[in-house]
């Protein structure tokens, strides 16, 4: 079943690219949303008894476990909402067939890479998919082609690429620290956690936190975060004064 | 021989920090790609043939020829040749870059637990390369220089991944290659667009979007 949600968007992208019709684009998005939702609910129901289920086609690289199934469910619910809303988003705008097709392809690729990120059982593979989400969403940000969209797309691609590069440094440092384990599968790392050299583990944790944190947007909202803390402190101070 | 090449790689970073001509930056990028290829050729064990061929193509074809050619085309199209007035004068950035490089050499002389898995000189120089390119990105003002800084950082990361005694799986290097390739092309495309939408290719032009307008 995992194979279906990973291969479906790729084939759909190819077909959409050659046909370029608005109706087919909408249909493909909604069909993928429904398939995605149904399969993730089915996986969730099936999961309850299973420890780890790996796929036949991709081997151990993609698997469902009790943690990532939750994220998969969140992704499919949100994507279903987006796919149904998508039709009315284009109602009042006059886009060419070509732009509409590229938009749909970018969305399909984005969801594909998000799914890959969530399902992959290997840290390095997960990294590759996270980078793919950056590249797929760059077109979506630039879609309106205004000055602001251009600026936002530039900043997004640049900041995320740097963040992801730092996360990759973290992964390399982790693979230095693992030494004889020689594997970046989450499962192997978890089993052999005691053997990883603490110095490299700490170093790689910092890099991975900063790198993926940048991708998440922690760096941009750091100012807002600090402001929040400051305001909470002020409130706390006020509360103390009133109380005593 | 390999150590000499790595030290040369570190020295190219110093040259990058000192000069402000973008053409010289691009030439240095190409040179770095060549150095990486030579290091790979001299140092890598020849057992895994497919991996070796793949990495050679990545360094020799993509890093040495394709990306510099593409950047030169953007340069000629947009007519930005110098990165004038960086935030920190070139001389001081040279001093700071040398301090970072020195720190890298200091790191490479560390001997501790777990250091047997890593080649020390590679590790130090690559860490200082990553630091220097991040520093250059923050101090320079032209957006083309930012892209060059990003590619330099990727070169440093490539050197770091060579320093790991065991090789990364091929899917990872493929992913990295794809990312560099597409990221550079997307960024180049955006540079062309920015040049037509804004007057100058300066980072100061890109300040219309803010997190919030609050001044507190």
What's the order of the H and E elements of chain B? HHHHHHH
| Strand tally of chain B | 0
Rg of chain B (C-alpha, Å): 18 Å
Strand % of chain B is under 5%
Distance between the termini of chain A: 62 Å
Largest interface: A-B, 40 and 43 residues
User: Which stretches of chain B of 5+ consecutive residues score pLDDT under 50?
Assistant: none
Summarize the biggest pleated sheet of chain A.
2 strands, antiparallel
What's the helical proportion of residues of chain B? Answer: over 70%
Following the backbone from N to C, one meets helices and strands of chain A in this order, namely HHEEHHHHHHH
**Through-space gap between termini of chain B:** 57 Å
Give the amount of beta strand of chain A, in percent. Answer: under 5%
Rg of chain A? 21 Å
How many strands, which pairing sense, and closed or not: the largest β-sheet of chain B? none
Helix content estimate of chain A: over 70%
Your description of this structure?
The complex is a heterodimer of chains A (244) and B (216). Chain A has a two-stranded antiparallel sheet with strand order 1-2. Chain A is mainly α and 244 residues long. Chain A is globular, with a radius of gyration of 21 Å. In chain A, strand 1 (53-54) and strand 2 (63-64) form a beta hairpin. Chain A is built from nine helices and two strands, in the order ααββααααααα. Chain B is an all-alpha fold and 216 residues long. Chain B is 73% helix and 0% strand. Chain B has seven helices and no strands. In chain B, helix 2 runs antiparallel to helix 3, helix 3 packs parallel to helix 7 (170-197) and helix 4 runs antiparallel to helix 5 (120-139). The N and C termini of chain B lie far apart (57 Å). The model of chain B has no long low-confidence stretch (mean pLDDT 80). Chains A and B meet through helix 5, helix 6 and helix 9 of A and helix 5, helix 6 and helix 7 of B.
Brief rundown of the structure:
The complex is a heterodimer of chains A (244) and B (216). Chain A has 244 residues and is an all-alpha fold.
